[in-house]
Design a protein that fits this description.
The protein is an alpha+beta fold. It has 3 helices and 5 strands. Strands 1-2-3-5-4 form a 5-stranded antiparallel β-sheet, covered by helices on one side. It has a single domain, classed as HIT family, subunit A (2-Layer Sandwich), CATH 3.30.428. Bound molecules: guanosine-5'-monophosphate (5GP) and zinc ion (ZN). The site of zinc ion (ZN) has 6 residues, from helix 1.
Length: about 120
Amino acid sequence: MTETNCIFCSIIKKEIPSKIVYEDEEVMAFEDINPAAPVHILIIPKQHIATLNDLKETEEKLAGKLLKTAALIAKDKKIDQTGYRTIFNTNANAGQVVFHIHLHLLGGRKLTWPPG
Ligand code: 5GP
Ligand code: ZN
């Protein structure tokens, strides 16, 4: 999947609508279309990076920003104290279906561990 046929790049360009919860020059966060928990938000870089395997050393700060953005949204959604989970799925065994890295932020209910 390249930038030209990437669904999340289309969401960034607002060609596909989404419920945006945060946006700046570098990152965007929006509600997952098929939520797995009461709070299920995806935090993505505006730059197209297919998987975590493709993250360059020069992009480490951007990855950290995705995590910090998730923490700020968790606070905003008032799940920071009850707890939440942040996940990157990478490739087939983890069930990655969209090949533009996205950090899942899940919370609002008791989450089971280990995940399936
Ligand atoms: P993955 O399995 O790749 O880690 O997760 C992809 C996530 O993207 C899924 O949770 C799925 O529901 C979500 N998703 C897929 N297409 C769309 C879309 O067009 N809009 C939104 N908001 N979420 C999407
Ligand atoms: Zn993309």
